[in-house]
Write a structure and sequence with these properties.
This protein is mainly beta and 251 residues long. It has two domains: 33-119, Thrombin, subunit H (Beta Barrel), CATH 2.40.10; 125-250, Jelly Rolls. Helix content is 7%, strand content 41%. It has three helices and 17 strands. It has helices at residues 33-42, 143-146, 192-195; strands at residues 19-24, 27-32, 46-48, 63-65, 77-82, 89-97, 101-106, 113-119, 124-134, 152-153, 158-170, 179-184, 187-188, 207-208, 220-222, 226-232, 240-250. The chain is elongated. The termini are far apart. 34% of the residues are buried.
């Protein structure tokens, strides 16, 4: 005589390997809890990554060990929290080694992760800011207004800055190239080179800020927040034609 489900004893802690019955068309099959969880998660724009798939303690400020990378891919956004902080942080997967690790561009992985979500690709957006002509004759933090004669304001609900790329078509003629940073409502968003941002590579070569140098307190741009470009002049101030590409993740 078969046993009713209601008559079965209550389960203990549930694991990914536990098995449940499902009916597909007219056939009764089985599915693991882990597989069912993965399927349900894919229906959301943010998918909770099972703690069994990664090591909570980061390998470095930019790298997270993962024993199962099947749910992630380079270019996808991440949303995570760390021990000691309730603030939600964001990043973009910049590199991956299958079933070994992922590298994250965004805020420093400075403590153990308490949650990790991977998002769909449509959460990632780029914004291009251009400063034609001489852009580093002097050091100022309002280059969009003073050189570009333009502005940029966030019109999304809120966005998280995860990385930015820099490029110039004509180098500074001296020994030192300019530094570039992004300003979130008047405050430096990148801590690299004592808040001056990355050094722009020689002409024709794109560069980017280091992976873990976005300041946590400056990562989020609320709706209506202005973004500016800070430039620290190089040796002779004759660098020309700067392009900055900012990478954002929407909530």
């Amino acid at each position: 005589m078969s046993t009713k489900i209601s008559a079965l004893p209550s389960s203990g802690a549930i694991s990914d390997a536990d098995v449940l019955p499902i009916v597909q068309s007219t056939t009764t099959n089985k599915v693991t809890v882990g597989s069912l969880y993965d399927y349900v998660s894919t229906q959301s724009s943010w998918r909770l990554v099972s703690a069994a798939k990664y090591t909570a303690t980061p390998t470095s400020t930019t790298r997270l060990a993962m024993s199962d990378t099947s749910v992630v891919a380079v270019g996808l956004p991440l949303r995570y929290t760390i021990t000691g902080s309730a603030t939600v942080r964001y990043g973009v997967i910049s590199a991956l080694s299958a079933n070994s690790y992922i590298d994250v561009a965004g805020v420093s992985l400075s403590a153990d992760l308490t949650s990790l979500y991977v998002g769909q690709a449509d959460h990632v957006h780029t914004v291009t800011l251009s400063l034609p002509g001489l852009y580093a004759a002097s050091s100022t933090s309002t280059k969009l207004a003073s050189i570009g004669k333009t502005f940029w304001k966030n019109l999304w609900r809120s966005v998280a800055l995860c990385q930015f790329y820099v490029y110039q078509s004509i180098s500074d003629g001296g020994a030192n190239q300019p530094n570039v940073n992004l300003m979130n409502a008047g405050t430096e968003a990148c801590s690299e080179n004592t808040n001056n941002g990355p050094i722009v590579p020689a002409a024709g070569t794109p560069g980017a800020n280091a992976g873990a140098t976005i300041v946590a307190a400056q990562q989020i741009l609320a709706r209506g927040t202005s973004l500016e470009v800070k430039v620290t002049a190089g040796s002779t101030g004759d660098a020309q034609n700067l392009t900055v590409i900012a990478v954002f993740v929407t909530e």
